[in-house]
Amino acid sequence: MSFPTKRAENKNFTITLAHESSNMNIAFSTTINICEDMYGPDMCNTEKMLKEFSLSPRSLFLVCEYKKQYFGHCFFICLKTEAYHKIMTFQMDYLDISTTDLALDGEDGSYLSVSLFAMNEKALALMFIRFYAYLILNQKTITHIGALVSEEDAVEIATNFGLKKVAKEDDLIAYSGTIKDVLLTEQIIKILFSPNDAPEG
Fold first, then answer.
1. At CA 130, angle to CA 36 and CA 68, rounded to 5?
2. Which residue of 66, 126, 186, 191 pairs with 71 in a disulfide if CB–CB is 3.0 to 4.6 A?
3. Per-residue model confidence as pLDDT tens digits over 114-149
4. Which domain holds residue 109?
5. Can you state the percent helix, strand and coil of the chain, rounding each to 5?
């Protein structure tokens, strides 16, 4: 998409919790459409399940808007430690995750990426900054961050997060890292201490 990112002022971008966004349904349908194109309809969450996940107190479902128009999203669910490790080692299927597997307030949990899409680098950077800020504020109850990826771009993002390959099954690769690994990546250090060198946004 040819969007004049450099002319877009940050004040016109907003990062909102999905259930508070007027573009929530667009974000969910985009997630499902991308998943179906990549993996087929039998491998994707339903809109009902995404809504249930988004309402969990520990989930972080963010929607990026530019002048109130949908511009991207990033969805993370916080799993109980046992469920997270089963997902990361392919002992449990991603689609078998239910709300009972989500971490409760106050207990240790690990974040699993559900979906990520952005129309440009600025939207992506702003969502990542919000995500990192959330991790920093809640690091005492977070143990790991992980993702199941297959595309080259997704692998690059996973490694930029400080995640490492832990398992592979068919076309899917499980990437995982401790909260310490993620918070000590070059990207977060730049954001915190050298904001001028951070990604645009």
1. 70
2. 66
3. 999 999 888 888 898 899 899 999 999 999 999 998
4. 11-197
5. 45, 30, 25
